[in-house]
Amino acid sequence: MREIIDLTKDLMRFQTVPSKPQEIKRCAAFIENYLRTCGVVYNRFDYENTPSILVLPQNGFAPVLLMSHIDVVDAPAELFQPLEKDHKIYGRGSLDDKYAVALSLVLLKNHLQRLRKQGRSRNDLPFGVLITADEESGGFKGAKKVLGEIKTDFCIVLDGGSVEKIVVKEKGIAFVKLTSRGKAAPGDRPWLGENAMEKLIDDFVKLRAYFVKSAPAHQDRAVVIKRVYSGDLHAQIPEYAEASVEIRYTGKDDMERLLDTMQKELHSQIVVEAVEPLFSGGESSHLKLLSGISAKTRVGFEDGANDSRFLAQFSINGIVWGADGDGSRHTLNEHVNIESVYELYRMLDEFMMVL
Q1: In this predicted model, what pLDDT tens digit does every residue of 174-196 receive, in sequence order?
Q2: What is d(CA 12, CA 341) in angstroms, rounded to the nearest whole number?
Q3: 222-229 and 172-181 as β-strands: parallel, antiparallel, unpaired?
């Protein structure tokens, strides 16, 4: 299983951040070459210049689908040089999510070799693999597109949880824009106008009050302001400003009512761009089988949201599962525990063997 670790480190050296699409394409080409070398037939999808790689045992169907992604969040250049130390791999993408890509590829290769030795073929594979490249920026060009074109009985999203925790529920996401309008005026006489940016800032402070722990019916919902824009102005106060906001909500939130309540307190207009559903994996025989393979593993909930939220749109049962990284995802200390990668591989291998 050492190959998983070496392949993880190879993948980590690609700086696959959203702002570097050529690096993403280079990484996808590296994976394609790996598959060709292993004699694996695959399909590549490109939606709006974003690649996804799909391997299925049959046209359009896999009994089980393993899903992971190669894109990562921004990091200093040195984090793209993997460091193996104290039975861990450190660096950007080690935990989120390149170990999962490597594990999926090696598991696929080994199962296909086993089948060929038995005189069988790719059609007999019990699982397929989907590798996307835009999970960190929403998953709309990867998982959402490709899942709509295939069928699977069960999807394992290798992007969260831990060896001892299978995630069956995660938050949903609402993509919201706040737009504020004021009155332009010279920068040296601001009292003659109304600063749209200042109004926007005041409104976000009001909005954020609904997401602090002391807020009524908080239930661990969360809000993050992602981008702010007011035009390229010099010596003038802005008459227009906008902010892109992400709201992570739980099953106990009535989003329509919450947004209506917030709107009544704000000067800015709340524009709902999209509301993505919560992830709820559903009951399945596959989950029961996995739980039986590892007596230590429990099911549970996580605060995060990832491409698993698209499963419900296509009536796919599934889970979120993964290796251990001590909560280091997206941090400067990001790492994955190597033994947990091996343990996850062993459990997935056994699971695929008994399907």
Answers
A1: 999 999 999 999 888 999 999 99
A2: 16
A3: unpaired
